[in-house]
Specification:
Length: 327
């Protein structure tokens, strides 16, 4: 077992142990922080599939994060108000069941990712970055003007949604839901990276011509990766909105896209647990320095600068001594 694998296992156990300890000490706030880390890490894992394996630098992933959040908010709001979403041509009602909400959020995000990816992937480089940013901002301003669901003020949910057999209002039980989902997606991401599809996607990132000579189309490989990435990020958005019991256009803004990318860069682009490390560092800095100064993100910027200049493998690469992930 490599040093990086040992580090990953230790990190997974630490992320589980901290909230369990906090639960024993009756510290629900720490459990909430750990839950936030798990959910934001999940969003980072989604981006890391597109960025780390496919080399797709997207500044529009907040669009999928926000779509997942609004899917949760809309379904839950209609369920709590006993109002159907639509009655014609057939009846569609809201729901407060998490599995159904997750399915809707994932499918909706995947469909939007399919549309955005089909158009954006016809470009490359800085043009791809800018067109994904443009799509994200279009959805952001649409949400601001969507007065039926709160507009700029956002949409509040009175009670957290339900999961069969669990009390989701209990912080430790909601954390376990987010943690298990994160672990499952990490396993999926690891297997995806080693699969023939993942290897072909990585090859397309390095040398398109060689991929095309064996009969594969880089565009299709990247589109599938982009859709999978968007679906996972949308699932994270639904969980995040459920955690806060609130969804707003902020979830769709380019600042959110930038934060998700920062998670990946700090932890290590292309590394399985890179987003987990990045999200943990971000939340820790926000918690420890946010009370000292409202400009705490200056320190985050300094850390990011150091990572880019001196640790191209991210914190995981610096700690495990491995800079190169893909040969």
């Amino acid at each position: 077992m490599t040093r990086e694998n040992l580090f990953n296992w230790a990190l997974a156990l630490a992320l589980l142990a901290v909230p369990l300890w906090a639960n024993a000490m009756d510290e629900p706030f720490i459990i909430t922080l750990a839950t936030k880390v798990a959910i934001l890490a999940l969003a980072g894992v989604g981006l890391n599939i597109a960025l780390g394996i496919g080399g797709l630098v997207s500044l529009g992933h907040a669009a999928f994060f926000g779509i997942g959040g609004y899917a949760m908010g809309i379904l839950a709001a209609h369920a709590q108000n006993y109002e159907p979403l639509m009655q014609v041509p057939f009846l569609i009602e809201g729901t407060n069941q998490m599995p159904v909400i997750w399915l809707v959020a994932t499918v909706a995000s995947a469909l939007v990712a399919l549309v955005i990816g089909t158009l954006s992937l016809r470009t490359s480089g800085v043009y791809f970055i800018m067109i994904t940013l443009a799509f994200g901002q279009m959805l952001y301003y649409f949400a601001i003007s969507w007065s039926a669901y709160g507009g700029e003020d956002g949409l509040s949910i009175w009670v957290r949604n339900e999961f069969p057999g669990l009390n989701t209002l209990d912080p430790i039980q909601f954390f376990m839901i987010a943690y298990v989902i994160l672990c499952l997606v990490l396993v999926f991401s690891a297997r995806l990276g080693r699969s023939p599809f993942g290897l072909a996607l990585a090859a397309a990132r390095q040398t398109e011509e060689r991929v095309m000579t064996v009969g594969l189309t880089p565009f299709h490989l990247r589109l599938v990766a982009f859709v999978i990435s968007g679906a996972i990020t949308g699932l994270a958005g639904a969980l995040y909105a459920d955690l806060n019991r609130f969804v707003s256009p902020t979830m769709l803004s380019w600042h959110t896209s930038g934060e998700i990318m920062v998670f990946v860069i700090i932890g290590g682009v292309g590394r399985l647990f890179g987003p987990v490390v990045g999200a943990a560092v971000y939340i820790l800095l926000e918690h420890l320095l946010g009370g000292i100064s409202e400009y705490w993100q200056i320190f985050l910027g300094l850390l990011l600068l150091l990572m880019v200049l001196f640790a191209r493998g991210g914190l995981i690469g610096a700690l495990t001594g491995r800079e190169v992930v893909h040969d």
